[in-house]
Amino acid sequence: MLVHFFDFAQLNSVRALPYVVAWRRRYGDGGLAVLGVHSPRFPFTASAAAVEAALPALEIDWPVAVDDSHAIWRDYGCRGWPSLFLWARGGTLAWHHLGEGDYEGTEAAIRESLGEPDGWPEPLAPLRATDAPGARVFPPTPELFPGGAPQTPWPPSDRGGARDPLVIDYEAGGAFAAVDGSGELRVRLDDAPEAPIAIERPGLVALAEHDGHERHRLVVAPNPDVRIYSLQFAPAAAA
């Protein structure tokens, strides 16, 4: 069983999910089971209803435990998102990996635990340049909390009236926002025209994605029904 700790609005968690989806499809018939453990990072991702609503868009069709008190998180000794643990037959821990990366190692551990029957495909190729073994990666701008902390949204819910938009200078392969509510974000990248982004449900939304490590200024203005908890930035591989 592969146990995947995640938060549906946390960028590193979401970036790991395509690999978990692919491994389940590749090795499910060979005996691999997957269990998700949703240990929330933000207040708006804590409820079972919010988790359930987020799963279809993430292509998660395996069981998910809602660890809203972080009890399972503490028992496993997790330190961040994502965290992956592979339990072999007999209840022995065959592999664990904290954070993104080493997808090649995780898949190798899965195959070794299951045995390698004839007919299995070649190991999965890296889905992003940053995931290739030995890839050199530019560090992105650190995560920003416009409300001051992961537990505090921006704009503050207890203050009405108009306010200036967020203006962020960043360097990364992409910019993402963890948002609660529904409505619209108005986004402008550098001198480009302002573009609306529809927010249909709480989660992680892409504000800008780039082919490489780039420097930009981002201006973000939400409507009153959308609250931003964090701005997260994706790494890019060095040429």
Write the layout of secondary structure elements.
Layout: E1 2-6, H1 11-27, E2 34-38, H2 48-54, E3 64-66, H3 71-76, E4 83-87, E5 93-98, H4 103-114, E6 137-138, E7 166-181, E8 183-189, E9 195-199, E10 203-222, E11 226-234, E12 236-237
Describe this structure in words.
The chain is α+β, with helices and mostly antiparallel strands and 239 residues long. The protein folds into two domains: 2-131, Glutaredoxin (3-Layer(aba) Sandwich); 138-237, Jelly Rolls. It is 18% helix and 36% strand. It is built from four helices and twelve strands, in the order E-H-E-H-E-H-E-E-H-E-E-E-E-E-E-E. It has helices spanning 11-27, 48-54, 71-76, 103-114, and strands spanning 2-6, 34-38, 64-66, 83-87, 93-98, 137-138, 166-181, 183-189, 195-199, 203-222, 226-234, 236-237. The strands form three sheets. Strands 3-2-1-4-5 form a five-stranded mixed β-sheet, covered by helices on one side. A hairpin with a 5-residue loop joins strand 4 (83-87) and strand 5. The two termini are 37 Å apart.
Biggest sheet, in brief?
5 strands, mixed
Spatial arrangement of strands, main beta sheet? 3-2-1-4-5
- CATH-defined fold name of the largest domain: Glutaredoxin
**Relative helix content:** 10-25%
Which architecture of the largest domain would the CATH scheme give at its second level? 3-Layer(aba) Sandwich
Beta-strand share of residues? 35-45%
Oligomeric description of these chains: single chain
Helix/strand structural class: alpha+beta
Termini separation comes to 37 Å
Low-pLDDT parts are none
Counted beta strands: 12
Report the CATH superfamily of the largest domain. Answer: Glutaredoxin
What is the top-level CATH class of the largest domain?
Alpha Beta
The structural domain count equals: 2
Q: Rg, please?
A: 19 Å
Number of continuous helical runs: 4
Broad shape: globular
**N-to-C SSE string, H for helix and E for strand:** EHEHEHEEHEEEEEEE
Provide mean pLDDT, rounded.
93
